Amino acid sequence: MSKRLINLENISKSFDGNLVLDDLNLYIRENEFLTLLGPSGCGKTTTLRLIGGFETPDKGRVLFDDKDITALPPNQRQVNTVFQKYALFPHMNIAENIAFGLKIKKKSKKYINDKIKYALKLVNLDGFENRGVESLSGGQQQRVAIARAIVNEPKVLLLDAPLGALDLKLRQDMQYELIRLKNELGITFVYVTHDQEEALTMSDTIVVMNQGYIQQIGTPEDIYNEPTNAFVADFIGESNIIDGLMLEDRLVEILGVKFPCVDVGFGKRRPVDVVIRPEDVELVAPEHGTIEGDVTSLIFKGVHWEIDVMANGYEWLVHTTQMHPVGSHVGIKVDPFNIQIMHKPESSDERAVEMDA
């Protein structure tokens, strides 16, 4: 297991009296691709800026390799940042943009030229040295911004929603490019996004944030298959989130019907949130279902059909490769292992327990 490279300890940060981060604790391992994921205003970009030195916490410490860097300015940290706007200099060509940080460090001309060639090859822009910034596409500009960051040999590369301005196909291509770069460079990536698919595709570890708190830390598989609360389940992919009543261990009542499940320890007759992913809902003949309903909507998505089924007053979202026409009467079955039971929060912004990555 890689060692911890960055530690954020008891971090709190406010802007104009609004608390953005509240006693946040997080560690990031060496060579990890860690993604901070959450809706706008959840504190993910502020967390990134604290690591980069662009913000200072009101309380708490930022440690890098066990050294306190809380008060260090950005240029004294072994960290480089790629912003969403790229921040390239339009009056400089590509080579000059990439060399900017190295010239400030007074590196030799040969060293700088070698680094420019190496970086451009790494981001698949061989021969672009003399091109102007304005002549590049959005994806190419993003690659130049990454090249400019990596020539400084940072231990950590911070990426603040760098793919947000790209179209879907280019964004997907760049996701795979970033994975390749991370593997080739052997450095730590800390990535900020509100795009769940992006986080699931690229990350070793995902940190789901909401309202200044960490809701869950885990691998993409953990976050998707074992969400800790309804917020995470709803934010990561699509889910059926239904009010339930835990009758006893391994038995939950959903919409007035008893469903076997595998969860224990919730007590008896306790209100719970029940989370069932759309791909885990099986449509069968009515007599074979645990509950019956009628198909109200049908959309073809290419790899599957997206179907809405109204059953016992709730509209179930179903993803299936089997077509069921609108108006069909169907049964719904769910494997007990695919029913996730969660405690109901005491309030809408209840603080979630932070988990070890």
Describe the structure concisely for a colleague:
The protein has 357 residues and is of the alpha+beta class. Helices cover 24% and strands 35% of the residues.
Total domains: 2
Radius of gyration: 24 Å
Order of helices and strands: EEEHEEEHHHEHEHEEHHEEEEEEEEEE
State the total count of DSSP E strands: 20
The percent of residues in helical segments reads 10-25%
How would you characterize the largest beta sheet? 6 strands, mixed
CATH class of the largest domain: Alpha Beta
**CATH evolutionary superfamily of the largest domain:** P-loop containing nucleotide triphosphate hydrolases
Q: What would the principal axes of the Cα set say about the shape?
A: elongated
Q: Assign the CATH architecture of the largest domain.
A: 3-Layer(aba) Sandwich
Unreliable spans = 350-357
Nearest-integer average pLDDT: 91
Number of helices: 8
- Indicate the structural class: alpha+beta
What are the SSEs and their pairings?
Blueprint: E1 4-15, E2 18-29, E3 33-37, H1 44-52, E4 59-64, E5 67-68, E6 79-82, H2 94-104, H3 109-122, H4 138-150, E7 156-160, H5 168-185, E8 188-193, H6 196-202, E9 205-210, E10 213-218, H7 220-225, H8 230-235, E11 240-248, E12 251-254, E13 257-260, E14 270-276, E15 282-284, E16 291-300, E17 305-311, E18 314-320, E19 329-333, E20 340-343
Parallel strand pairs: 3-8, 3-9, 6-7, 7-8
Antiparallel strand pairs: 1-2, 1-4, 4-5, 9-10, 11-12, 11-14, 12-13, 14-20, 15-19, 16-17, 16-19, 17-18
